[in-house]
Amino acid sequence: MSPQIIALLLEALKETAVMVGVSGALAAVFGIPLGVILVVTDRGHVVQNLVVNRVLGAIVNAARSTPFIILMVAIIPLTRMIVGTSIGTAAAIVPLSLAAIPFAARLVETALREVDAGLIEAAQSMGASPLQIIRKVLLPEAWPGIVAGLTITLVSLIGYSAMAGAVGGGGLGDLGIRYGYQRFQPEVMIAVVVVLIVMVQAVQTAGDMLARRMNKRNLSRERG
Q1: All structural domains of the chain with their residue ranges
Q2: 3-218 sits in which CATH class?
Q3: Digit-coded pLDDT (tens) for 140-175
Q4: Which of 1, 7, 53, 89 is the most exposed place for a label (fewest CB within 10 A)?
């Protein structure tokens, strides 16, 4: 590959990293609380509120069932209102975040539901408030599963970001479409695929290591 293509590849990698990093951070900031609410407002839980639970559940399901490409196109007016444009890296962050938040919320919900109910009952018997149960029982016990869920979210975002390149989202997907496909340069397409695979492997490995470390910490605390 020419130095110009290598420079474009590095720039596209940076754009993809920004898209995935920002949208992943927003998914964690909003997805974790949303997942907590979906659990604690369910039937028989610490702050049961079936109306809130069903409404939020329906919204999350509707967002998750919308294909990402359709979501990107459907929210173009919202994207323009937030960032002032519908193309480029900044514009792609909006639909990426909206796709990732409900996805992460369901994974966080799954991790929280795996917490032993006996621990929650023991905390309630000692007079712990719902907030204390969430902060000192649910979240600490579920952190390994939450980290694993956020890792899956980041891996999915890498794929979504490449898809966003097909509609002007920038990043590696855009580079692969413009140079690898439209300009018939297969080596560029191969390079883009290799870089995406390396990114996925790196994120998955780091997430698995962090989840295992947190799990060992929880086991050590329980034995102690």
Answers
A1: 3-218
A2: mainly alpha
A3: 999 999 999 999 999 999 989 888 877 777 888 888
A4: 7
